[in-house]
Design a protein that fits this description.
By secondary structure, the protein is an alpha+beta fold. It is built from nine helices and ten strands. The longest helix is centred in the N-terminal third of the chain and has 27 residues.
Length: about 325
Protein backbone atom coordinates (compact mmCIF):
# COMPACT_ATOMS: atom_id res chain seq x y z
CA UNK A 1 0.00 0.00 0.00
CA UNK A 2 1.30 3.45 -0.83
CA UNK A 3 2.01 6.18 1.73
CA UNK A 4 -1.07 8.08 0.63
CA UNK A 5 -3.16 4.97 0.97
CA UNK A 6 -2.06 4.49 4.56
CA UNK A 7 -3.30 7.96 5.55
CA UNK A 8 0.11 9.38 6.33
CA UNK A 9 1.19 12.71 4.84
CA UNK A 10 3.73 12.43 2.07
CA UNK A 11 7.28 12.20 3.41
CA UNK A 12 6.09 11.14 6.87
CA UNK A 13 6.68 7.64 8.10
CA UNK A 14 5.95 5.58 11.10
CA UNK A 15 9.62 5.72 12.07
CA UNK A 16 9.38 9.49 12.38
CA UNK A 17 6.41 9.17 14.68
CA UNK A 18 8.19 6.57 16.75
CA UNK A 19 11.27 8.77 17.22
CA UNK A 20 9.08 11.72 18.17
CA UNK A 21 7.09 9.63 20.63
CA UNK A 22 10.25 8.21 22.18
CA UNK A 23 11.54 11.71 23.08
CA UNK A 24 8.53 13.83 24.01
CA UNK A 25 9.34 17.44 25.06
CA UNK A 26 12.96 17.30 23.83
CA UNK A 27 14.30 20.80 23.17
CA UNK A 28 15.84 21.85 19.96
CA UNK A 29 19.70 22.31 19.95
CA UNK A 30 19.18 26.08 20.35
CA UNK A 31 16.92 25.54 23.34
CA UNK A 32 19.53 23.25 24.94
CA UNK A 33 22.25 25.87 24.48
CA UNK A 34 20.09 28.63 25.97
CA UNK A 35 19.15 26.57 29.01
CA UNK A 36 22.76 25.63 29.61
CA UNK A 37 23.85 29.28 29.38
CA UNK A 38 21.14 30.36 31.82
CA UNK A 39 22.23 27.72 34.30
CA UNK A 40 25.85 28.80 33.87
CA UNK A 41 24.94 32.44 34.51
CA UNK A 42 23.03 31.53 37.66
CA UNK A 43 25.99 29.46 38.84
CA UNK A 44 28.45 32.31 38.47
CA UNK A 45 26.05 34.89 39.91
CA UNK A 46 25.79 32.91 43.13
CA UNK A 47 29.44 31.89 43.20
CA UNK A 48 28.45 28.22 43.38
CA UNK A 49 30.50 25.86 41.33
CA UNK A 50 33.14 28.41 40.29
CA UNK A 51 36.37 26.51 39.80
CA UNK A 52 39.94 27.39 38.93
CA UNK A 53 39.95 24.80 36.16
CA UNK A 54 36.82 26.10 34.42
CA UNK A 55 37.00 29.81 35.20
CA UNK A 56 40.66 30.69 35.85
CA UNK A 57 42.22 31.72 39.14
CA UNK A 58 41.35 35.44 38.86
CA UNK A 59 37.62 34.91 38.24
CA UNK A 60 37.51 32.17 40.85
CA UNK A 61 39.16 34.44 43.44
CA UNK A 62 36.76 37.31 42.69
CA UNK A 63 33.54 35.24 42.59
CA UNK A 64 33.88 32.25 44.87
CA UNK A 65 31.87 32.13 48.09
CA UNK A 66 34.52 30.18 49.97
CA UNK A 67 34.70 31.79 53.43
CA UNK A 68 38.50 31.81 53.60
CA UNK A 69 38.81 33.45 50.20
CA UNK A 70 36.13 36.02 51.06
CA UNK A 71 38.11 36.94 54.19
CA UNK A 72 41.32 37.31 52.17
CA UNK A 73 39.46 39.46 49.62
CA UNK A 74 38.15 41.77 52.34
CA UNK A 75 41.58 42.16 53.94
CA UNK A 76 43.26 42.74 50.58
CA UNK A 77 40.73 45.39 49.57
CA UNK A 78 41.16 47.18 52.92
CA UNK A 79 44.95 47.15 52.65
CA UNK A 80 44.72 48.46 49.10
CA UNK A 81 42.40 51.27 50.22
CA UNK A 82 44.75 52.27 53.04
CA UNK A 83 47.69 52.22 50.61
CA UNK A 84 45.86 54.44 48.12
CA UNK A 85 44.91 56.96 50.81
CA UNK A 86 48.46 56.89 52.17
CA UNK A 87 49.89 57.58 48.73
CA UNK A 88 47.49 60.48 48.23
CA UNK A 89 48.45 61.99 51.59
CA UNK A 90 52.12 61.55 50.77
CA UNK A 91 51.63 63.21 47.39
CA UNK A 92 50.05 66.24 49.05
CA UNK A 93 52.40 66.53 52.03
CA UNK A 94 55.69 65.32 50.56
CA UNK A 95 56.41 63.62 53.91
CA UNK A 96 56.07 60.16 55.42
CA UNK A 97 54.36 59.72 57.71
CA UNK A 98 52.16 62.71 56.91
CA UNK A 99 50.15 62.23 60.10
CA UNK A 100 51.45 62.66 63.61
CA UNK A 101 49.88 62.36 67.07
CA UNK A 102 50.40 65.03 69.71
CA UNK A 103 51.72 63.76 73.04
CA UNK A 104 51.44 66.72 75.42
CA UNK A 105 49.41 69.84 76.20
CA UNK A 106 52.06 72.48 75.47
CA UNK A 107 50.23 73.68 72.33
CA UNK A 108 46.82 74.02 73.97
CA UNK A 109 44.26 75.31 73.28
CA UNK A 110 45.18 75.05 69.60
CA UNK A 111 46.35 71.43 69.77
CA UNK A 112 45.47 68.85 72.38
CA UNK A 113 47.05 65.60 73.49
CA UNK A 114 45.67 62.87 71.26
CA UNK A 115 45.06 65.10 68.25
CA UNK A 116 46.26 63.94 64.86
CA UNK A 117 48.00 66.64 62.84
CA UNK A 118 48.51 66.67 59.09
CA UNK A 119 51.97 68.00 58.28
CA UNK A 120 53.60 69.05 55.02
CA UNK A 121 57.09 69.92 53.84
CA UNK A 122 58.05 73.37 55.03
CA UNK A 123 58.41 74.57 51.43
CA UNK A 124 54.78 73.75 50.53
CA UNK A 125 51.76 76.05 50.92
CA UNK A 126 53.97 78.98 51.87
CA UNK A 127 52.24 81.93 53.52
CA UNK A 128 52.95 85.62 53.08
CA UNK A 129 56.13 86.81 54.78
CA UNK A 130 58.07 83.54 54.83
CA UNK A 131 61.67 83.85 56.03
CA UNK A 132 64.02 83.66 53.03
CA UNK A 133 63.65 80.33 51.23
CA UNK A 134 62.56 78.41 54.36
CA UNK A 135 58.85 78.52 53.54
CA UNK A 136 58.15 79.31 57.21
CA UNK A 137 56.28 82.38 58.44
CA UNK A 138 57.22 83.37 61.99
CA UNK A 139 54.75 84.75 64.50
CA UNK A 140 56.46 88.13 64.23
CA UNK A 141 55.96 88.27 60.46
CA UNK A 142 52.49 86.73 60.69
CA UNK A 143 51.40 89.62 62.88
CA UNK A 144 52.54 91.99 60.14
CA UNK A 145 50.95 90.14 57.19
CA UNK A 146 47.85 88.70 58.86
CA UNK A 147 48.97 85.10 58.23
CA UNK A 148 48.01 82.62 60.96
CA UNK A 149 47.80 78.90 61.65
CA UNK A 150 46.16 77.11 64.57
CA UNK A 151 44.73 80.17 66.21
CA UNK A 152 47.81 82.44 66.29
CA UNK A 153 50.03 84.27 63.78
CA UNK A 154 52.80 82.30 62.09
CA UNK A 155 53.53 78.65 61.31
CA UNK A 156 53.64 75.73 63.72
CA UNK A 157 56.76 73.73 62.79
CA UNK A 158 58.08 70.26 63.50
CA UNK A 159 61.79 70.09 64.34
CA UNK A 160 64.48 67.90 65.88
CA UNK A 161 65.80 69.46 69.12
CA UNK A 162 69.46 70.35 68.61
CA UNK A 163 69.30 68.48 65.30
CA UNK A 164 69.53 65.07 67.00
CA UNK A 165 67.70 62.56 64.79
CA UNK A 166 67.23 60.02 67.60
CA UNK A 167 65.05 62.36 69.66
CA UNK A 168 61.29 62.66 69.35
CA UNK A 169 60.44 65.69 67.20
CA UNK A 170 58.88 68.81 68.70
CA UNK A 171 55.87 70.63 67.31
CA UNK A 172 55.92 74.30 68.38
CA UNK A 173 55.34 77.72 66.86
CA UNK A 174 58.17 79.64 65.19
CA UNK A 175 58.16 83.02 66.99
CA UNK A 176 60.92 84.91 65.20
CA UNK A 177 64.11 84.61 63.17
CA UNK A 178 67.51 85.59 64.56
CA UNK A 179 70.80 86.23 62.79
CA UNK A 180 74.14 84.86 63.89
CA UNK A 181 75.54 86.70 66.95
CA UNK A 182 72.24 88.55 67.46
CA UNK A 183 71.43 89.31 71.09
CA UNK A 184 67.86 88.27 70.49
CA UNK A 185 66.77 88.50 74.11
CA UNK A 186 67.35 92.23 73.86
CA UNK A 187 66.29 92.84 70.23
CA UNK A 188 63.23 90.67 69.51
CA UNK A 189 62.14 88.62 72.50
CA UNK A 190 59.03 89.46 74.47
CA UNK A 191 59.75 90.20 78.12
CA UNK A 192 56.72 88.09 78.97
CA UNK A 193 58.42 84.94 77.62
CA UNK A 194 62.05 85.36 78.81
CA UNK A 195 61.10 85.05 82.49
CA UNK A 196 63.43 87.85 83.47
CA UNK A 197 66.52 86.16 82.00
CA UNK A 198 69.26 88.23 80.36
CA UNK A 199 71.27 87.37 77.27
CA UNK A 200 74.23 86.39 79.45
CA UNK A 201 72.08 83.81 81.25
CA UNK A 202 70.99 82.01 78.08
CA UNK A 203 73.41 79.69 76.30
CA UNK A 204 71.95 80.46 72.84
CA UNK A 205 72.31 84.23 73.25
CA UNK A 206 74.03 85.73 71.34
CA UNK A 207 72.74 83.36 68.66
CA UNK A 208 75.46 80.87 67.62
CA UNK A 209 74.01 80.86 64.06
CA UNK A 210 70.93 82.05 62.20
CA UNK A 211 67.70 80.25 62.96
CA UNK A 212 64.29 80.22 64.67
CA UNK A 213 63.27 80.95 68.24
CA UNK A 214 60.33 78.70 69.10
CA UNK A 215 57.70 78.27 71.80
CA UNK A 216 54.68 76.13 72.66
CA UNK A 217 51.50 78.20 72.72
CA UNK A 218 50.71 76.96 76.24
CA UNK A 219 54.27 77.27 77.61
CA UNK A 220 55.43 80.22 79.73
CA UNK A 221 58.76 80.72 77.95
CA UNK A 222 60.76 80.16 74.79
CA UNK A 223 62.19 76.71 74.06
CA UNK A 224 65.70 78.20 74.11
CA UNK A 225 65.52 79.17 77.80
CA UNK A 226 67.24 77.06 80.48
CA UNK A 227 64.96 74.28 81.75
CA UNK A 228 62.52 74.45 78.86
CA UNK A 229 60.72 71.29 77.81
CA UNK A 230 62.20 71.32 74.33
CA UNK A 231 65.80 71.58 75.58
CA UNK A 232 67.02 73.04 72.31
CA UNK A 233 69.20 75.88 71.13
CA UNK A 234 68.29 78.14 68.19
CA UNK A 235 66.54 75.93 65.62
CA UNK A 236 68.41 75.70 62.32
CA UNK A 237 66.22 75.56 59.18
CA UNK A 238 67.67 72.13 58.32
CA UNK A 239 66.35 70.73 61.62
CA UNK A 240 62.79 71.54 60.56
CA UNK A 241 61.07 68.44 59.17
CA UNK A 242 57.68 69.95 58.35
CA UNK A 243 54.91 72.30 59.36
CA UNK A 244 51.43 71.60 60.68
CA UNK A 245 48.39 72.22 58.48
CA UNK A 246 45.27 70.49 59.83
CA UNK A 247 44.08 69.03 63.12
CA UNK A 248 41.90 65.95 63.62
CA UNK A 249 40.71 65.80 67.25
CA UNK A 250 41.10 62.64 69.37
CA UNK A 251 42.13 60.21 66.65
CA UNK A 252 45.75 60.25 67.82
CA UNK A 253 44.70 58.52 71.05
CA UNK A 254 44.64 55.26 69.09
CA UNK A 255 48.35 55.53 68.42
CA UNK A 256 49.15 56.73 71.93
CA UNK A 257 47.25 53.78 73.40
CA UNK A 258 49.17 51.34 71.20
CA UNK A 259 52.48 52.93 72.24
CA UNK A 260 51.52 52.75 75.89
CA UNK A 261 50.36 49.15 75.60
CA UNK A 262 53.56 48.04 73.89
CA UNK A 263 55.70 49.90 76.39
CA UNK A 264 57.44 52.10 73.85
CA UNK A 265 58.44 49.23 71.56
CA UNK A 266 56.64 50.69 68.54
CA UNK A 267 58.26 54.11 68.67
CA UNK A 268 60.71 55.79 71.02
CA UNK A 269 59.20 57.25 74.13
CA UNK A 270 59.30 60.97 74.68
CA UNK A 271 61.76 62.49 77.11
CA UNK A 272 60.82 63.02 80.69
CA UNK A 273 58.60 65.99 81.32
CA UNK A 274 59.77 69.30 82.67
CA UNK A 275 58.37 72.46 84.17
CA UNK A 276 57.58 73.70 80.66
CA UNK A 277 56.69 70.59 78.66
CA UNK A 278 57.36 70.44 74.96
CA UNK A 279 54.78 69.15 72.56
CA UNK A 280 56.14 66.06 70.94
CA UNK A 281 54.75 64.46 67.86
CA UNK A 282 54.88 60.83 66.94
CA UNK A 283 53.51 58.66 64.27
CA UNK A 284 50.97 59.11 66.88
CA UNK A 285 52.27 60.69 69.98
CA UNK A 286 52.05 62.80 73.02
CA UNK A 287 54.34 64.74 75.18
CA UNK A 288 57.13 67.17 74.68
CA UNK A 289 58.06 67.61 71.10
CA UNK A 290 56.75 66.33 67.92
CA UNK A 291 53.81 66.40 65.57
CA UNK A 292 51.07 64.01 64.79
CA UNK A 293 48.76 63.87 61.84
CA UNK A 294 46.14 61.29 61.53
CA UNK A 295 44.27 60.39 58.52
CA UNK A 296 40.67 60.18 59.31
CA UNK A 297 39.86 58.08 56.35
CA UNK A 298 37.49 55.23 55.94
CA UNK A 299 38.74 51.68 55.71
CA UNK A 300 39.55 48.27 57.15
CA UNK A 301 36.62 46.51 55.58
CA UNK A 302 35.33 49.93 56.09
CA UNK A 303 36.11 53.17 57.90
CA UNK A 304 37.63 51.63 61.01
CA UNK A 305 40.31 49.67 59.19
CA UNK A 306 41.45 52.54 57.04
CA UNK A 307 41.49 55.04 59.88
CA UNK A 308 43.28 52.53 62.08
CA UNK A 309 45.90 51.83 59.44
CA UNK A 310 46.53 55.50 58.86
CA UNK A 311 46.79 56.22 62.58
CA UNK A 312 49.24 53.42 63.25
CA UNK A 313 51.35 54.62 60.36
CA UNK A 314 51.32 58.13 61.77
CA UNK A 315 54.36 59.71 63.31
CA UNK A 316 54.90 60.58 66.94
CA UNK A 317 55.88 64.03 68.17
CA UNK A 318 56.25 66.01 71.31
CA UNK A 319 54.74 69.44 71.77
Amino acid sequence: MSGSDSGDPPGDSGDDRERSAASPGRDSPDDNAESSQQRDDRKHASGDGVTIEDDGIVRWFLETDDENVVLVRDVASSVALVAVVGLLLFAVSGLWPPLVAVESPSMEPNMHRGDLIFIVEDGRFTGDGAVGDTGIVTMQRGEETGYSEFGNPGDVIVFRPNGVTETTPIIHRAHFWVEKNERWVETKASEEFVNGATCEEIASCPAPYAGFITKGDNNPGYDQLPGSGARTTVVKPEWVTGKAMYRIPWLGHVRLTVDSFLGGMVVPGSPAGSAAPATTASAAGSGASGTGLGGAVAGATGIAGLAGGAVLAAGRYRS
